Amino acid sequence: MSIMIEVKDVVKTYKLYRKPTDRLKESVFPTKKQYHENFNALNGISFEINKGDALGILGRNGSGKSTLLKLITGVLSASSGTIKVNGRMSAILELGAGFNPEYTGRENIYLNGLMIGLNRSEIDTKMDGIIEFADIGSFIDQPVKIYSSGMFARLAFAVAINVDPDILIVDEALAVGDVRFQMKCIEKMKELKAGGTTILFVSHATEQVKRFCNRAVWLKDGVIEAIGESSEIVDLYEDYMKYNSGDNGESNMKTADSKVNDEIDPDMILPSNPDIVASITKVNINETKFKTFDQVEVQVDYEIYDKIIHGLLIGVALYTPDRQYIFGPNTYLEKINVPNTHGRHQVKYVIPRLPLLGGTYNIDVGLFNNEGIVCLDYKQEAAGFTVVNKYFSEGLVYIEHNWEVLR
């Protein structure tokens, strides 16, 4: 398998000055007193990315993620170490980066195409597809300085993923676009990945990394804390963020208003916001008080406003009141097909023998598509229940077990 990107012993050092005049003093008197402190944004990292890999890059703000991507794309130069890139690279690093604000959207398509090595005739053959994908109407011939952030994201994505790159780099840009555009971008990225394109993907939404990427790297304070299979690295990173980072276990998942409608309107009303493609309308639970090993039934009512949503999935998650994540299956992982066409639908989630011991628990429900990468609607604490027993065991869950007397 061919290596597309090789990073070897890379260090990136910045000079930090306490005040602007210190920079001037040091430049005027270079052999005198040193006025700066060195800061290693990256400190000797090494890894390889093979053709067709989708590598997720995880880490807190300031861990070196964006610096790494800028080094790979050539925006920055490494202080030491080497980076080798094989193939045509297309990148979305910052909103509007590489765009001339005075140029129109169409002119910026030519500019960006030329920057990554396409000639004008090649850009001409791709122009209609790029404009159609961006879907910003007549604004394509207006200066991009009047674009909204969403329009910037649309045009940037449209250019980056429609120029047949060997390597695609995406840095948090998915967080800007609306849900419909996110769905379209993920579909196109999956198509590129299936065709052998190597993808580097930075996202604070760890579920996106887990479900889209096959590998992941966790950067911590400028060094690689862990690298490997994406779901394993995400689990390590989330565990660290929950228990060691001071984030108090706050979830990175997208949440919605926790209130759920008690009644469904007899005539489904389309939402005024066209970006809403589906919504959860009601969540019912068969009881609010259980004993361990009782059957729990959660009924989820939802509406779909598009003709069809490909790859629709439903997830139901159990949490403690302090948001400790207990269990969260979804219909995609368990290969359950749920209704995904226009209209109102109901799905029942059943736990035949509840293993939880005494306590209070909450239920979250979410609608997603693209293997859970794009969140369509999410109801946090949509339902709750308590478990009350006569004293027979201790802990959070009851685990089937046996005792043997050996002597």
UniProtKB/TrEMBL annotation:
<keyword id="KW-0813">Transport</keyword>
<dbReference type="InterPro" id="IPR003439">
    <property type="entry name" value="ABC_transporter-like_ATP-bd"/>
</dbReference>
<keyword id="KW-0547">Nucleotide-binding</keyword>
<dbReference type="GO" id="GO:0005524">
    <property type="term" value="F:ATP binding"/>
</dbReference>
<comment type="similarity">
    <text>Belongs to the ABC transporter superfamily.</text>
</comment>
<feature type="domain" description="ABC transporter">
    <location>
        <begin position="5"/>
        <end position="246"/>
    </location>
</feature>
<dbReference type="InterPro" id="IPR017871">
    <property type="entry name" value="ABC_transporter-like_CS"/>
</dbReference>
<dbReference type="InterPro" id="IPR050683">
    <property type="entry name" value="Bact_Polysacc_Export_ATP-bd"/>
</dbReference>
<protein>
    <submittedName>
        <fullName>ABC transporter ATP-binding protein</fullName>
    </submittedName>
</protein>
<dbReference type="InterPro" id="IPR015860">
    <property type="entry name" value="ABC_transpr_TagH-like"/>
</dbReference>
<dbReference type="InterPro" id="IPR029439">
    <property type="entry name" value="Wzt_C"/>
</dbReference>
<dbReference type="InterPro" id="IPR027417">
    <property type="entry name" value="P-loop_NTPase"/>
</dbReference>
<keyword id="KW-1278">Translocase</keyword>
<dbReference type="Pfam" id="PF00005">
    <property type="entry name" value="ABC_tran"/>
</dbReference>
<dbReference type="Pfam" id="PF14524">
    <property type="entry name" value="Wzt_C"/>
</dbReference>
<keyword id="KW-0067">ATP-binding</keyword>
<dbReference type="InterPro" id="IPR003593">
    <property type="entry name" value="AAA+_ATPase"/>
</dbReference>
